[in-house]
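Homework help board

Subject: predicted structure for assignment chain

Our instructor gave us this sequence and asked us to write out the predicted structure in token form, then describe one feature. I got the tokens but I'm not sure how to describe them. Can anyone check?
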Amino acid sequence: GRIVAVEALVRWDHPERGELLPAQFMHVAEESGIIVPIGEWMIEQACRDTRSWLDAGLVDRGFSMHINVAARQLAEGTFVERVLSTVRLLEMNPHQLTLDFDEDTLTDGQSGTIRSLQAFRRVGVQLALDGFGTGVSSLTALRTCEADVLKLDGSVARTLGSHGDDD
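My token output:
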């Protein structure tokens, strides 16, 4: 009977191609590095929305805003402090923010990624391992990062409960 969480989603309103989904442009954003300012804007806007909903009584203190983050963001030296500064500025509790990342983030080889995740965890920001089951080292990913939330990939979730011949 209450909203417990939402996920912030980004779309690009392209002047010629119309609305583009993340799969159509995020790879370019990550490769070019523009993912960092896009991600920063998303975090700030999502936190502002959360603050607004809390103030209006639309959600309670247990509510959490989920935001996808890329390895490149997590590897940025000042990313953790910038996110926490936004959380403090908007007088949110860190547990009201959940950062979603995929298995590839854990194996990307960028220094600082795991340290950033650990720093967020220490201060109470929730972590969600997104699209679980698609990577080659899914079980290793579980050991590497103590995620608070495990989001199964749709291909894995669809097979749960099926009783095929290979069960």
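Reply (TA_rk): Your tokens look well-formed. For the description, you could write something like this. Residues 1 and 59 are 11 Å apart (CA to CA). That's the kind of observation they're looking for.
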